[in-house]
Every structure is written in structure tokens, then in C-alpha cells.
Design goal:
alpha+beta, two-stranded antiparallel sheet
Length: 147
């Protein structure tokens, strides 16, 4: 079965390929992770909490993936805000979205050509580790944009 179905959407097999590649990178780094893969609408397709990953990172990994899908950009670059004034931008994102989006790094969209087909969110390591694992997952999809 192909990774991307006609109409540019991530298939369940594609989601599993993303998950497997991300797990392989997390193992290589010796950093157990929570990894969420969503469709283009931010709805969960595949998830794993690796042995030893922080249980509080379950929700964070999904929030990172949802943010990347919503923004079509890495979660660390989220731009939602309540006001254009001074203050903590990350707090404003949380308030305006009811905590559903985050400015934490580790979420990446999966874009093939011009189409958003899904996203990945990784949480439980450092920001750099989370991003490296997410990048490995995105790389599993042929033709996906590399971050």
C-alpha cells in the first residue's frame, strides 16, 4: 500500500512508516520518545510511547503534531496569538486554542509537493532530540519536504 493515497492524504501504512523511522532514530539516540502521527487535519493516525518515555509527554507529542498540521510549519514557529502586544507568546497560544496548540519544538508537518498530508509530534527528549526524531519520521515519506 502506498504511503500517500490519491487526493494527497497520509495512509495508515504511511503513518506506520513515519512512526517506525522515528522510533529507529530515537533508539539510535538512546532517547525513549512519545511519537504521534496525524493526518492533515491533526487527527491521530498512529502513536507510540516508547519504553521509558515520560508519560506526561503523551499529550505534548499530539499537541506538537496538531500545531504543525495547523500551521503547515514546525511547532516551534507557531504564530497564533491573542493580541499583538507584549507578553509571553507561548501562553497566548495556549489560551487562544484551549491548550491544543503549542510553541514547543518537535512537531513537523509532512508536506508532499504542495499538499499537507499529515504531521508528526515528538516529545520526551530535549528540543534538539525531539526535532531530530521528527525529521527522521518525515524522511520516511518519499517526496516529503525536509525541514
Amino acid at each position: 500500500m502506498p504511503d500517500v493515497a490519491p487526493g494527497a492524504r497520509l495512509t495508515h501504512e504511511g503513518a506506520m512508516n513515519v512512526l517506525r523511522a522515528a522510533i529507529e532514530k530515537a533508539d539510535e539516540l538512546s532517547v525513549p520518545q512519545c511519537i504521534a502521527v496525524t493526518d492533515a487535519g491533526g487527527r491521530l493516525l498512529a502513536f507510540v510511547r516508547m519504553d521509558g518515555a515520560k508519560f506526561l509527554s503523551i499529550r505534548t507529542s499530539l499537541r506538537k503534531a496538531m500545531t504543525a498540521a495547523s500551521q503547515r510549519a514546525p511547532s516551534g514557529q507557531a504564530t497564533h496569538a491573542v493580541h499583538h502586544d507584549e507578553g509571553d507568546h507561548a501562553v497566548r497560544i495556549g489560551l487562544v486554542t484551549g491548550g491544543r496548540l503549542t510553541r514547543l519544538e518537535g512537531g513537523l508537518p509532512i508536506i508532499v509537493g504542495d499538499d499537507l498530508v499529515g504531521s508528526i509530534g515528538v516529545s520526551s527528549g530535549s528540543s534538539e532530540e525531539d526535532v531530530a526524531v521528527a525529521m527522521a519520521g518525515v524522511s520516511a515519506i518519499a517526496g516529503a519536504e525536509r525541514w
